[in-house]
């Protein structure tokens, strides 16, 4: 019974994740569509023309950044595979220097007893 509820919960979460992935909007794509729609209505508008150019440049920059990030992730995975794992950590022993004696600590001072205060 518990396994069935776990499976049902997993399926629910999976369906929510897929639905969320399908509905997420890309701001650049949404902006480009809006600008293109308005540019088709008003082809002489300089501001819309500039906005269209800026969106195209931004899309190119974003694609370039994503490609670099993917390359870095790939390089990091490759480096991680190359690392050699050691079995155990080496624990170094403490070597005492000749002529250095351990410093003696003073004895602890005894704490006075609790002070009695009137009215408490």
What can you tell me about this protein's structure?
The protein has a domain at 27-79. The chain is built from three helices and no strands. The chain is mainly alpha-helical. The longest helix has 37 residues, at 46-82. It has helices spanning 2-23, 27-41, 46-82. The protein starts with a helix and ends in a 38-residue tail after the last helix.
What is the helix/strand order? HHH
Sheet-strand content, in percent, reads under 5%
Count of DSSP H/I helices:
3
| Average residue-wise pLDDT | 77
Helix content: 55-70%
Computed over alpha carbons, the radius of gyration is 34 Å
Give the overall shape.
Answer: elongated
Low-confidence stretches: none
Most strands sheet: none
- The CA-CA distance between the termini, in Å, is 61 Å
Total beta strands? 0
Structural class: mainly alpha
TL;DR of this structure?
With 120 residues, the protein is an all-alpha fold. The chain is 62% helix and 0% strand.
Write a concise keyword list for the protein shown above.
120 residues, mainly alpha, 3 helices, 0% strand
SSE diagram, text form:
Layout: H1 2-23, H2 27-41, H3 46-82
């Amino acid at each position: 019974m518990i396994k069935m509820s776990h499976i049902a919960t997993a399926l629910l979460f999976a369906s929510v994740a897929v639905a969320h992935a399908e509905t997420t909007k890309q701001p650049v794509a949404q902006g480009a569509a809006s600008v293109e729609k308005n540019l088709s209505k008003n082809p002489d508008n300089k501001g819309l023309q500039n906005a269209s150019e800026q969106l195209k440049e931004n899309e190119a920059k974003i694609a370039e950044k994503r490609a670099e990030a993917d390359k870095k992730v790939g390089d990091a995975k490759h480096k991680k595979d190359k690392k050699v794992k050691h079995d155990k950590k080496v624990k170094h022993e403490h070597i005492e220097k000749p002529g250095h004696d351990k410093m003696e600590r003073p004895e602890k001072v005894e704490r006075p007893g609790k002070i009695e205060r009137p009215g408490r």
